[in-house]
Amino acid sequence: MKKTIIFISDYFIDEIVGGAELCNDALIENYLKLKYEVIKIKSVYVNLNFINLHKNNVFIIANYMQLSENVKSSLANNMFKYIIYEHDHKYLKSNNPAIYNNFLANEEQIQNINFCKNAVAVLCQSSLHSEIVFKNTLLKNIVNLGCNIWSEKHLKILGNNIKPNELKNIDNIVYNSKNYNKGTFKSIEYCQKNNINFQFLENCEYEQFIENLSKAKNLIFFPTWIETFNRLAVEAKILECKITTNKFIGAASENLLSLSGLSLLNEIKLKMNKVYNIFNLLITNDLQNINFYSESLPRVTIMCTFVEAELYIEQYLEQIINQTIFNEIDLFIVDCASTGKEQEIINNYIKKYKNINYIRLENKVNISTSFNLILDNTNNKYISMIQVDDRPSLDYCETLRKHLHYSNEIDLVYGDCLQTNKPNETFNNNSSNMLYDHSIMDFKKENMIKCLPGPMPMFKKFMLEKNGKFDTDLIYANDWELWLRCIRNGSVFKKINKQVGLYYFNPNGKSTSLENLNNKLKEERKIFNEYIDVLGPTNYNLYKDYFNREV
Q1: Of 112, 132, 149, which marks where a domain is finished?
Q2: What pTM does this model have?
Q3: Reduced to 3 DSSP states, what percent helix, strand and coil does the chain have, rounded to the nearest 5?
């Protein structure tokens, strides 16, 4: 008896003739139906009763914009076997990574992560598609198919319409699409700017469409979003048509657009067979032969220093060792001559975890000295600082490292932190009803009137190698001064719109106790007057009375 495949999509070929629908239909007709029973169902009609009725079958989920949240949640959390056949960018609310710097969306734009994470695989159309999905989601189950699928009929039509350049009678052609993403207006602008005459390629039946395209010497095509593969570009090249385009074409990342004519058509056929084999391996659960996409990101150093922290140290360590990427973290702890059980507690963790580094000093030193000592003893490119009484979210390191790594022009990243007055609460279990106010604003240098990075930023070590380390003469506002110094010399920071930790407003803390308020204010006043050029004259005049006050 054949296995049954449940194929879910927003639309099928009898309703919409788009690239995704053509690809889905070809997969079903060319391959799936030859080996399996296939039940096709629109995502809008899928409910909990339906998926439970078919819980022992394999689900292939293509476009799923209309799939309900409760169905996605049930599939993800109840051990269903499903494969996501990703045709676009449904992990983003905008569905278009092209609108973000480096194709990296801010955190509030990310969606469907749990649904994607629990799939057997998330199938992408090209290397470019896979890279962008990974940098935004960090999923471990991405598979690059490296190709689209065509029906046998359409492949034959393509082969029959290959013609040499001398038989073509249209110099330039522009695809006239009503779909904004296809960038018809951009292509027209390009032609007008460069005084290029062109004809429109209109939508029509496939055979006529390909015949019309085959008459053109050059396709001018400037999509406004990331084309995960793009059938049109490949079809044009098969038809010996040149392409004037941008960097948004996924097929180009597979080096397919360097081929043309029959050689490209034959390469597509070979790649399609590889796609069928990937589906077979996934459906039969032969995952050891699947090449899952991965990238190696740099290790992270977390810096921590304290004196007399017995109350906090064990729970702090628990929050660090439970970081989602703890095996890619080196924790450095400087204990400044504490007299409690801190050393005993830390040593118990060191026995289990080789990436915990403990430095015990016999004398008390300030935070700047401790942090500089750690910086001298780590070779890691990315540095984080989390004090012993604060609590990061469990994905804190993973999330901030992603943005630091994939934002080439950024030297430091930070997020929102909750604030609590109760010691030893955790990010996942706390009574906080407020945000730490310094980090609320997005980065610009004038906003550094407050120390925007807050209690737990992550930064590139190179930034300090270029601008100098922490000033050991400063005790209370050493981080604020360092960030201002870096910004003065051109560093750029980035806020990610996500809560990344819990800040404890410790009444006995070095920079938060009333006992130290006067000394703290004197130190901040000196920094405030030193960095007028960064903070700007408006902020200087606005805040000078605050910093010159006596308490």
Answers
A1: 149
A2: 0.93
A3: 45, 20, 40
